[in-house]
């Protein structure tokens, strides 16, 4: 049985194209699910399904680009490889800028498709790992009390415990206790690491001009 992370979802209105591409992908050991339209895919789209989309850019009804935009609006993050005619290059570039992994101009070689699919699947794995790590950090943050969050917000700006105590009108000892608990609950080994976690939690923003 193939892993869900190797699921390739093929969407193209041309049955001959779906059959040919599906054969190529299955021969490479990939689990393929195909649809003849974007609408058909959306009817049974599973946000938790791992893998990638191989998507025709121009289809009757909802176009590939419109499907991409719909998935973004629904916060469904899945790597997309667009299949496009040569005249669709500007639209394809727009799709890539909107988050697509790549686009393949028709006609293309099977090995080129497989290479793009492998890249997309790896990108999907990386995105899932990042999402899982963010979820774990947010769970830790939820364990903080309102006062601990307040102290954390001050600490990550670079204030010393004494300065935090003055700002929040607390005793230095109380701030030290809160600070120790924050480091423990957030599983941070240093203030620098706590700063990184604060960025993930949204209680600290990068200075303007920084990536």
TrEMBL record:
Q: Which InterPro entries does this chain map to? A: CheY-like_superfamily, Sig_transdc_resp-reg_C-effctor, Sig_transdc_resp-reg_receiver, Tscrpt_reg_LuxR_C, WH-like_DNA-bd_sf
Which stretches make up the Response regulatory domain?
7-121
PROSITE patterns (alphabetical): HTH_LUXR_1 (PS00622), HTH_LUXR_2 (PS50043), RESPONSE_REGULATORY (PS50110)
Q: Does the keyword Phosphoprotein apply?
A: yes
Determine the domain of life of the protein's source. Bacteria
- Annotated signal sequence is none
Q: Does the keyword DNA-binding apply?
A: yes
Q: Which SMART domains match?
A: HTH_LUXR, REC
Q: Which residues are reported to carry the modification 4-aspartylphosphate?
A: 56
Domain (HTH luxR-type) spans: 137-202
Which of UniProt's keywords are assigned here? DNA-binding, Phosphoprotein, Transcription, Transcription regulation
The protein, known as:
Response regulator transcription factor
Q: What is the lineage of its organism?
A: Bacteria, Pseudomonadati, Pseudomonadota, Gammaproteobacteria, Oceanospirillales
